[in-house]
Amino acid sequence: MSLWDHLGELRTRVIRAGVYLAIAFVVCFFFFDAVLEIISAPWLEATGEGALNAIGGPVAGVAVKLKVVTYMALVAAMPFILWEAWRFVAPGLTSKERRWVAPFFPVAFVMFCLGVFLGYVTWPKAAEFLAGFAGESIDIFTSASEYIGFYAFFMLAFGITFQFPIILFILQAAHIVTWSQLLGGWRYALVIIVVFAAIITPSQDPYSLLVMAIPMIIFYFAAILLGWIVFRDRPDETVLES
Questions:
Q1: pLDDT of residue 239
Q2: What is the 3-state secondary structure (H, E, C) of the chain?
Q3: Rounded to a whole number, what is the distance in angstroms from the first to the last CA of the chain?
């Protein structure tokens, strides 16, 4: 395919992904109340507040609802978006690489959901840490919009963390990095992972940092092992001295 053909194919995939997202938005709109109650419960319990505050004028409630529904729609439409991404990438891979890479797109969605679930389980502890850090002398009145944005970023951080092994495998499939290079740089990778977890963890509490960093370290070595299994016969794969 020529460059223009690739761009045309990319445009088609992006438009289809947008349609899936729009459909998911309409469907998720009807589940707003139930989802908001679930995600706000840990914070309200930690702070003792009765409800989140819709600060920002008459349209604040509308803005909060649209924000929550948008995040829900992104998660709901993710399998279809990943499918379009696969249809765009697949023609550039060999038959052997397609057999190994194809399952990673549904796996990516499952891993993302697992990461979000881990974030959901971790959030009550993080909420307690944040609510108690300011001390009893400070009353916290939480803006609904700010809380939803923070909560979504917290979940997204964990969801992205669980994409880490898939990203490393795809980089190996695309000849950008080799399993032997990853193995040779494992010491630097551990430091980078811990720093990354410290930066991306929105709550900045040590509990969330550890819960995020430990899976990433495990994923790093799992990606190396999988890369060795699949790509060790490539001519550019040479074991680096560690």
A1: 44
A2: CCHHHHHHHHHHHHHHHHHHHHHHHHHHHHHHHHHHHHHHHHHHHHHCCCCCECCCCCCHHHHHHHHHHHHHHHHHHHHHHHHHHHHHHHHHCCHHHHHHHCCHHHHHHHHHHHHHHHHHHHHHHHHHHHHHHCCCCCCCCCEHHHHHHHHHHHHHHHHHHCCHHHHHHHHHHCCCCCHHHHHHCHHHHHHHHHHHHHHHCCCCCHHHHHHHHHHHHHHHHHHHHHHHHHHCCCCCCCCCCC
A3: 41
Alpha-carbon span 125 to 131, nearest angstrom: 10
Number of residues that make up the chain: 242
Which residue would you say has higher pLDDT here, 7 or 134?
7
Place of tokens 């938005």: 25
pLDDT reported for residue 21: 92
Cα dihedral 58, 63, 66, 67, rounded to 10, equals -150
Q: Which two tokens stand for residue 215?
A: 């899976």
Q: What would the two tokens of residue 24 be?
A: 């998911």
**Most confidently predicted of 12-26, 34-48, 96-110, 136-150:** 12-26
CB 142, CB 47: distance < 8 Å: yes
Beta bridge partners of 53: 143
**In the predicted model, is pLDDT for residue 237 greater than 60?**
no
Between CA 67 and CA 73 the distance in angstroms is: 10
Task: Write out the two tokens for 175.
Answer: 């000849």
